Amino acid sequence: MSRGILVLSVLLLPLLAGCFGAMGVPLPEDRLVKLRAQLEEIDLVAAAGGESEEDRDDGPVRSHLESLKASLAPIADSKDRSLRSDAARLHLLIGYCWERLGEFREAIREYEQATGSEYGSVAFMRVAQVNEHLAENVSGEDPAKRKKNAIKALERGANFPIQLDASTGKLRGPLVLVRQPPVGPAPVVEWLAVDIRHHSYKALDEYYQEKLAYRIFDFLVNISGGRDKNSSYLLAIVLIALLAKLITMPLSTAQFRSMHAMQAVQPEVKKLQEKYKNDKQQLARAQMALFKEHKVNPASSCLPMLIQMPILIWVYYGIRQFVFRFEGVHFLHVDSLANPDVISIGGSLWPGPLLLVYGLSMYVSQKLIATPAATPEQQQQQKLMAFMMPVLLVVILKGLPAAFILYWLLNNILMTGHQYLIMRRRRLEDADVAGTLALAQAQPPIPSSPSPAPPPEAFDKISQGTRPRRKKKKKKR
C-alpha cells in the first residue's frame, strides 16, 4: 500500500508542479532568424505610416495584415505538419500587426494560436509582454488579471527544456525574440535573441518577491551570509531540509512504527494465506480480524506520506519562485543550481552525478522499508520496485532545477537516517524480548514445595462460615 502511494505521489508531483515544460519544441535558430526579419519588415511598414499618434497612417500595416490573412486562409485547418508550422508563424505575424495597430486583445488571440507550435517560445513572450503593457498602461483593464496572465505565460516560457550550447559548451534555454521596447506601437529599437529561461526567471522574480515562500528563502539566505555568498544559498537549502524534517518527524515516526507493526504480523499473515489460499473473501476477513486483534492499521503507513506531500510541493514551488537567485550558484560539478543536473554524453543530456546519488539514496531507503514478503511473487515484486522506483524518479526529475534535487537528496538522507534509528531501536527491543523468552525456556522449572497445612483455627472458621457471628443484644428489662 505504501509503495502504491509513493508511486502515485511521484507521478503526481511533476504534473501538479508543471515541471514537464511548455507545449511545443524549441524554435530552430535558422527559423528564428527568418522570423526576426519578418517582424522587422512589419516594423518598417509601420514606420512608413508615421510614428506620431496624430499623423500616423495605419493603412500600410492593415494592408500587410490582409495579405497575411490571405496566406493563412488555405492552410489554417491543415493537418500537414509543415503547413501547421507555417500557419503558426502566420498567426504570430498577424498578431504582431494587430499589436502595431494598438489592438492588443486581437494580438493576444492570434499569439495564443501559436503557443502550441515550435513558435511557442516567441508567442509566450509576446503574450506576457502585451499583458504587462495592458496592466500598466491601458485604462479599463483589470491589472490583477492581466498580471496573472503574464505570469502564466512567463512560467510556460521558464519551463522550456534546457539544451547544450554548441559554441560555449554550457547549458542554456532555447533562444527567443524579445522586443525593445517591449510593446508596439512604440518605435522599435531592436529585436533581441535571448535565453528564454533566463529572461523568464528574471521577469518572474519581480512578481514573486511578494510571495511567502520567496520571502522565507530570502530570509534564510540573508541569515546564512547574504546574497553575495555562494555558500548562503547552499546553507539555505540545508536549513529548509532540516525545518521540513522537524515538521514531519512525528508523522515519520508514526509511519515507521506502523510499518514495524506490519512486519511483526507478517508470519501470521502468511499462515492465513496458506490456510485460505482458495477463498479470497475469507482471507480478507481473516486478515482484517488479525489486524484488529493486534491493533494494526494497514493504511496508517500511507496517511503520513500523503500529509508530507504538500510540504514537498511547497518547497518545489518555493525553489521555482526563488530560482532566479540560484543562477550562478555552483555546487561541486553543478555550475548553476537554477539549471537541471545533467551532463552531455554523445551529444545527449543524461542525469548528472547529483541526480544519480539521489537515485542511490532512494534505492537504499526502499531496501530499508521493505517488509517481509508473504509469497515469492510479492518478493519478486518488491525487488523490482526497489530497482524501478529510483530509475523512474531519476528520469522524471531530470528536468528540475538542481537546487530542488539537492533539497530532496538531503531530505531523503535525513528521512533514511531517522528511519534507520527507529528500526534499529525496534530490532534491539525485539531482540531483548526474544532473549528473555529463550532464557526463560532454557531454565529448568523450579519444583513447587508443598504448602504448609493451615492452622486448626482455620478449619474452625471454615466450618463456622466466613461471616462473623452477630452478638445478641440483651433485652432491657
Question: What does this protein look like?
Answer:
With 477 residues, the protein is mostly helical. The chain has two domains: 22-207, no CATH class; 217-428, no CATH class. It is 64% helix and 5% strand. The protein contains 17 helices and six strands. It has helices at 2-17, 29-48, 59-72, 81-100, 104-112, 120-137, 143-158, 196-208, 212-223, 230-264, 266-275, 280-293, 303-321, 353-369, 376-396, 402-442, 456-464; strands at 163-164, 171-172, 175-180, 190-195, 342-345, 348-351. Residues 1-5, 15-23 and 458-467 have low confidence and may be disordered.
Please render the helix and strand layout as text.
Layout lengths: L1 H16 L11 H20 L10 H14 L8 H20 L3 H9 L7 H18 L5 H16 L4 E2 L6 E2 L2 E6 L9 E6 H13 L3 H12 L6 H35 L1 H10 L4 H14 L9 H19 L20 E4 L2 E4 L1 H17 L6 H21 L5 H41 L13 H9 L13
Antiparallel strand pairs: 1-2, 3-4, 5-6
